[in-house]
Design brief:
With about 260 residues, the chain is of the alpha/beta class. The protein has one domain: 4'-phosphopantetheinyl transferase domain (Ribosomal Protein L22, Chain A, Alpha-Beta Complex). Helix content is about 30%, strand content about 25%. It has six helices and 13 strands. Strands 2-13-3-7-6 form a five-stranded mixed sheet, covered by helices on one side. Strands 1-11-12-8 form a four-stranded mixed sheet. A hairpin with a 5-residue loop joins strand 11 and strand 12 (about 230-240). Helix 2 (about 50-55) packs antiparallel against helix 3 (about 60-80). It is globular, with a radius of gyration of 18 Å.
Length: about 260
């Protein structure tokens, strides 16, 4: 049975050797405040390119979050492939979406990563595109000017129809759902943000309402709202109609 919303209380300990069914999508929640020893181990798995990307962050806290998120992504994918996390190689599309490279590409395993503040999320699927986004709810982002810049006219109208006290949550619902869909499509900034509408009103089904110029695209993607923790909003976009979402909490396997 497909879940349309994942409650923060049902994230189960992740399996050491996960078995992913063709019709399933696995979602992994990662606490990024790792111990110094775990962080050191994880950092050793990263490629030179990943180390360079981490070093570009101005603040050390952001560097640590990047290292933790990308190191844990490697460890998670390595569980499915039964290899050392350091062995993994990635390539990026022309629009920047990463995927497995070389021999690992033929496995059909797909994934997407997002992280914000103290939490990261990883979506893993088999032969279907996925996109995931998590955001820490903060006041500085959720304002009307930003909504008018990045949301469609339909979404802005829905947002402004809400009472003031409901707009911040609706803003982040819209933001994460749009980001998840764009990341799943893998088109990056080449895809106009006003080319599709997502549902954001309280009690409204979580879905892509319409896509332009091709309305059939809305029927080819499934959208889910996720609740990883208090103070966070997240969303998952999946190609097709998955049978099941499995929600796992990552932990360092060496500590089990």
């Amino acid at each position: 049975m497909t879940q349309t919303k994942v409650d923060s209380q049902i994230w189960f300990p992740g399996p050491i050797s996960p078995k992913l069914a063709t019709g399933s999508v696995d979602i992994w929640k990662i606490a990024l405040n790792l111990s110094a020893s775990t962080l050191e181990q994880i950092e050793a798995w990263l490629s030179e390119e990943e180390h360079q990307r981490a070093s570009r962050f101005r603040f050390q806290a952001h560097q640590i979050q990047f290292i933790a998120a990308h190191g844990c992504l490697r460890e998670i994918l390595a569980r499915y492939l039964n290899i050392n996390p350091k062995e993994l190689q990635f390539i990026a599309s022309s629009q920047g979406k990463p995927s497995l490279a070389d021999d690992f590409r033929s496995t059909g395993l797909t994934f997407n990563l997002s992280h914000s503040n103290e939490w990261g999320l990883v979506a893993v699927a088999y032969q279907r595109a996925v996109g995931i986004d998590i955001e820490f709810i903060r006041d500085g982002l959720a304002d009307e000017q930003i909504a008018r810049r990045f949301f469609s006219e339909h979404e802005v109208a829905d947002l402004l129809s809400l009472p003031i006290e409901l707009r911040r949550l609706a803003f982040f619902n819209c933001w994460t759902r749009k980001e998840a869909y764009i990341k799943a499509r893998g088109e990056g900034l080449s895809m106009p943000l006003n080319a599709f509408d997502v549902a954001i009103l309280p009690g409204e089904p979580v879905e892509i309402i319409r896509t332009r110029p091709d309305p059939a695209q809305a029927l080819q993607w499934k959208l889910y709202a996720l609740q990883p923790d208090d103070g966070y909003v997240a969303a998952l976009s999946v190609e097709g109609q998955p049978d099941l979402l499995n929600c796992w909490q990552w932990s360092d396997p060496t500590c089990n």
